[in-house]
């Protein structure tokens, strides 16, 4: 593929202008620099050699640049996936890890084909806000070890870097401020001879390119039984984090992305990563925010981030190793600050916000931060939202009654959404002992959602029938009528 064709395929079918291309190149370089210590740190979490995480970051970024559905989003080795695969690498070795990554990618492709991405519409906004805030907290806390037990010069350098990142954009945006901070601090520490922790202190950088190969594991049912649970964890955690990050970027850039394509793109990237000796990964909100905040909007920056990463660690590894960690810590701290939804925790907003929404957000943050697992946090957040929603809606059902002037018929008007939580008490809303011989239940302002409601209506008619009272149910909309006709009289063993 020629260079113009490559650029066109990565930027929506046409070669981007030079100004846009410059922004994409610089953003990709900044992201690549920020990826190096993160990939090394995640490798340590997973219990594998640093090159396993670095290779994963390279292959994930390059492949997703072509296959992904969200332009400008960065995928690489992540802490969420590292936590999933750590027990497998520790107990069975790195080759089993590679096999699990390949299988996890295949599962992601399968989930994409079956419409997993469409389930994202069921994520409440409060869960999204909790997800963003939790990740901001995790990004910030992940930098704290680099600020503990270090020379005082580290704090001074980090403060200078923060000042550059905050202040430079007010003067010019021609060059990304994080890149300027990294270059300035590296040049200063080298010329002044300041001894502070550097990228090289985080682990040995690889000096060879990744090699394509098949994981060296027995192709047996026993192997499948070992790697399958971890592969499923990789698939679910990776997709959830990637799709939520894609939605976040959609909101920031006021654009829409293909979530189904992103889902199978993540799967393809993980399959390739496993065959190239990587630990697997997914979208990274921290690096994605660096990329987007630097002005990147196309796949060019994603592709270059992965490419620069490999060049930096393989060709320029000795130079990259000299970058002070204080500079990269400052970059990530600013990412955390800009990622956090400060509006969501303003006292004025919290006073206006329903307590149920705040509870969902706080539960999502607490579980995610407590477990360092996005899947757990989102799962608990959605569960809490469902329970609180059902509880709230259950109290919105109202039953009123009117007795006809002749006293021969009583009309009960039911309004609200009838489902298991709201219909359980419906049976107690009628005066069975004193009602006349004709009872009408008007459902014009109600909707039947499930079998529990049909069973409740059956119980009501049965109680009336035992007293010789005839019950007529009227006013059902089409969906409610179809559900009632299909299930009425068939929900108990005696029928």
UniProtKB/TrEMBL annotation:
How is the protein disposed in the membrane?
A: Multi-pass membrane protein
Domain STAS: start-end pairs: 399-484
Write the protein's name: SulP family sulfate permease
Q: Does the keyword Hydrolase apply?
A: no
> Where is this protein localized, as stated in its record?
Membrane
Task: Give me the segments passing through the membrane.
Answer: 25-48, 60-84, 96-119, 126-144, 150-168, 175-196, 216-240, 307-340, 360-389
Query: Which superkingdom does the taxonomy of this entry point to?
Result: Bacteria
UniProt entry keywords in alphabetical sequence: Membrane, Transmembrane, Transmembrane helix
Predominant subcellular localization, coarse grouping: membrane
Answer yes or no on keyword Cell membrane: no
